[in-house]
Design a protein that fits this description.
The chain is mainly β and about 190 residues long. The protein is about 10% helix and about 40% strand. It contains two helices and ten strands. The strands form two sheets. Strands 1, 3, 5, 8 and 10 form a five-stranded antiparallel sheet that branches. The chain is elongated, with a radius of gyration of 21 Å.
């Protein structure tokens, strides 16, 4: 089994849900301390989707089997009031797949310092072609867990893929070819 980790090349605010806009959504593309921010998240107010897309998994060989996906989101809240996950979904074929929500619902993000949340055991794995498409990604929202306001901040989103490469079919052909060459040398 092999693994490959990638950061997105694009981040975007998507108003399909929620009422709080993400500022600087493009900041989720690397671990650099620059954050996407949903300001003024308060009691049960949910953010828009923060979408990360453009992960480069082109190095995974054709016909590989996708075994597992791990999503990591480096996030924090700013303010003394709680903010947490509401939704964490995969994006496949450019569409947010809402069949599996991996959000840690009801768990407050740390205040004032980044911490990485890890989301595993996805049962809705993408195909290799979906994974390698530019529109594959992660969509997440934050929600206020208390009556007062805080901001939700995300430094980066990364995806790690565990996969099995296909068996080397050239090896069988090579062995046969070696036998033929041995017969000629003798």
């Amino acid at each position: 089994m092999a693994t490959l980790t990638s950061f997105p090349t694009a981040g975007a605010d998507d108003a399909a849900v929620g009422s709080v806009t993400w500022g600087n959504p493009g900041n989720v593309v690397s671990n650099n301390g620059l954050r996407a921010t949903a300001a003024s998240v308060s009691s049960a107010a949910e953010s828009h989707y923060l979408k990360a897309t453009g992960f480069d998994f082109s190095m995974i060989p054709a016909d590989s089997t996708i075994n597992a996906i791990t999503v990591k989101i480096d996030r924090q809240r700013n303010g003394s009031f709680n903010v947490g996950d509401a939704r964490v979904y995969l994006i496949k074929g450019g569409t947010i797949d809402t069949s599996v929500n991996k959000a840690n619902v009801g768990v407050a993000w740390p205040n004032g310092s980044d911490a990485v949340a890890t989301y595993t055991s996805w049962s809705n794995l993408p195909t290799l072609s979906q994974l390698q498409a530019a529109d594959f990604g992660v969509a997440m929202t934050a929600i206020g867990l208390s009556a007062s306001t805080a901001s939700a901040d995300v430094d980066y989103i990364s995806v790690t893929v565990d996969y099995t490469e296909p068996a080397d079919t050239n090896l069988r052909g090579g062995v046969s070819g070696v036998s033929g060459i041995s017969a000629l040398v003798c």
